Amino acid sequence: MAEFRMPALGADMDSGKIIEWRIKPGDKVKRGDIVALVDTDKATIEVEVFENGIVESIVVPEGETVAVGTALAMIRGEAEAVAPRAPSPTPAAVHKPAPPSPAPSRAPLRAEPPSPPIAIVPPPAQAPAPARRSLRVSPLAMRVAMDLGVNLLSVKGTGPDGAITRKDVEGAAQAAAQTAAPAAAQAQPPAPRPGEAIKVVSMPRAPAAGDRQAAMRKAIAAAMGRSKREIPHYYLGTQIDMSAAMEWLRAENLNRPVTNRLLYSALLLKAVAIAVRQIPEMNGYWVDGVFKSSAAIHVGVAISLRQGGLIAPAIHDVDKLSLDEIMVSLRELVKRVRAGILRSSEIADATLTVTSLGEQGVETVFGIIYPPQVALVGFGRIVERPWADKGMVGARPVMTATLAADHRVSDGHRGGLFLAAIDRILREPQKL
Amino acid sequence: MTDVEIKSLVLRELKKIAPEADLEGLDGAADLREQIDLDSMDILNLAVAIHETTGVDIPEADYPRMATLDGAVAYLRSRIKAK
Predict the structure, then answer these.
(1) Cβ of residue B3 closer than 8 Å to a chain A Cβ
(2) Pick the residue with more confidence: A255 or A102?
(3) With helix as H, strand as E and coil as C, how does chain A read?
(4) pLDDT at A123
(5) Cys staple from A98: which of A163, A344, A369, B6, with CB 3.0 to 4.6 Å?
(6) Chain B residues within an 8 Å CB radius of A315
(7) pTM of the shown model
(8) Res. A355 pLDDT band, cuts 50 70 90
(9) Terminal CA-to-CA distance of chain A, rounded, Å?
(10) What ipTM describes this predicted complex?
(11) What is the pLDDT at residue A353?
(12) Lowest mean pLDDT among A192-196, A209-213, B65-69
């Protein structure tokens, strides 16, 4: 029996709200199926399941917000025999909503034909038994906590059943202000330890557009703040003559119907993915004090939203895709980002990120690494500049490529080789 | 197709691409990209949408002629007439 947990959909996500279950007990699921819609600060995410099996039970009902790592549903592997009855919930595991707030509905919100009642079971007791803490928070207290930047995990509740009240939050904020300086570092909730499920019970409430915007700003601030605190960045930049790439692209697109045309962004993504094969210390994650390089090359693409904000979902295995396939993925991705609906797999697992400021932007971008990744490649606007080549000066389309990389993992020399490899690859676009 | 029809077609597709943009206040003679913050992906999607609705395949070399709303209407009129 496997727990299907709230996935961490990026470094800036602490919790998510189940807005819809697409499965019910007894359903067969297979790897990659979309099983739930989860609302995060940045977008609505279609959460995919990682394995084949049969849904045993739904643990967290629709409308509830829970921390990353919380068991959401129990899924029995196909090979597994029918599991013995789950032990009856221990009192500690049964969480009741805080009395001051109206009880969140336990029943699924969708109207559907009578189906077996949804069993709410605790994670199966395994040794060591996972500690399960239920946070009881009134909606008002939660809002105040968000406004004041108070980490609810550090607040001691004094309300009925240990519920955290608005007073508790304000008290915690005051205490934090008095201890001053290190407050910023503490404002970040600790990542849930494996085996520890933290449950935040709150009233379901659909975020208004303005709230989403504010929440996204906050999420970006948290991730970028963490990056700047923890990652010793170094920055490199180089100018790349794009005449070969742009000429190749122009000729290529001339023969293509509008529906199959390529954007130069596709070339950039492929060039980065191929270059990073040669410099693997740019591709992977910094986790628990060590660098884990990734064999797969999943390139995060920073996509800006017109109303402000930024999401960097990944295109998977870019090094193995053709330019056409990259283009299809890119179009899909931009469409979904702008619509605000993304898939869990594409939002969670970029191994490095590319940001391209496009034609309207500036020439140079100094990126901030998206933790736990260790490198970010930036491309500026392509501009026509005088360029000397073989003793002759001519006008060429020139693009500035930059690298922000993690000094805990690599040094400027390797970073320089990485940028040089990107340059070399872009000069031979026909090989892409 | 009349100019009014072409214009409303372009505006309708722009609305799909940039739902949050204020299209009422567009200056027909000013750069579209700057006014509603379009990137190359948006321009490509606009070209694809126009192709799907009118059958006109806009070559990349003609993109500059689509830079403003007025320019786009004039360009599409000539292309549709030529068909």
Answers:
(1) no
(2) A255
(3) CEEEECCCCCCCCCEEEEEEECCCCCCEECCCCEEEEEECCCCEEEEECCCCEEEEEECCCCCCEEECCCEEEEEEECCCCCCCCCCCCCCCCCCCCCCCCCCCCCCCCCCCCCCCCCCCCCCCCCCCCCCEEEEEECHHHHHHHHHHCCCHHHCCCCCHHHCECHHHHHHHHHHHHHCCCCHHHHCCCCCCCCCCEEEEECCCCCCCHHHHHHHHHHHHHHHHHHHHHHCCEEEEEEEEECHHHHHHHHHHHHCCCHHHCCCHHHHHHHHHHHHHHHCHHHCEEEECCEEEECCCCCEEECEECCCCCEECCEECCHHHCCHHHHHHHHHHHHHHHHHCEEEHHHHHCCCEEEEECCCCCCCCCCCCCCCCECEEEEECCCEEEEEEECCEEEEEEEEEEEEEEECCCCCHHHHHHHHHHHHHHHCCHHHC
(4) 38
(5) A163
(6) none
(7) 0.69
(8) very high
(9) 44
(10) 0.86
(11) 97
(12) A192-196
Q: Which residues of B touch A254 (CB under 8 A)?
A: 59-60
What are phi and psi for residue A397, nearest 5 degrees?
A: -75, 120
Range A315-322 average pLDDT: 96
B68: domain CATH number?
A: 1.10.1200.10
Q: Given pLDDT bands bounded at 50, 70 and 90, which one contains residue A110? A: very low
Confidence of residue A176 (pLDDT cuts 50, 70, 90): low
Shortest Cα distance from B13 to chain A (angstroms)? 14
Asked if pLDDT for residue A121 goes beyond 50, the answer is: no
Out of A233, A316, A407, A413, the active site residue is: A407
Q: Return the closest-CA partner of residue A414 out of A247, A260, A249, A293.
A: A293
Contact criterion met (CB below 8 Å) for A270 and A420: no
Minimum mean pLDDT among A184-193, A246-255, B63-72: which range?
A184-193
Where in the sequence is the domain holding B68, given as residue range(s)?
Answer: 3-82
Total of domains in chain B: 1
Active site residue A316: no
Residue A128 has pLDDT above 60, yes or no: no
Interface test with B, best of A248, A255, A306 (most B CBs within 10 A): A306
Rounded to whole angstroms, the Cα distance separating B83 from B76 reads: 11
Query: Please, what are the domains in chain A?
Result: 2-219 (2.40.50.100), 231-431 (3.30.559.10)
How many CB atoms lie under 10 A from the CB of residue A430? Answer: 9
Query: pLDDT exceeding 90 applies to what percent of chain A?
Result: 45
Please, which residues 280-319 of chain A have a Cβ atom closer than 8 Å to chain B?
306-307
pLDDT for the residue A41:
78
Which pLDDT score, from 0 to 100, does residue B24 have? 86
